[in-house]
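seq:
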Amino acid sequence: DGGGCDGHKVDKSEEVMKASITDELSSLQRFME
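struct:
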């Protein structure tokens, strides 16, 4: 099912984006301390 595959790809990139955002926030917190 191509649609399912596309949806999976979207989930993956969203996960990656969230992970990098969380990483940046962690770096910011360390910088602020």
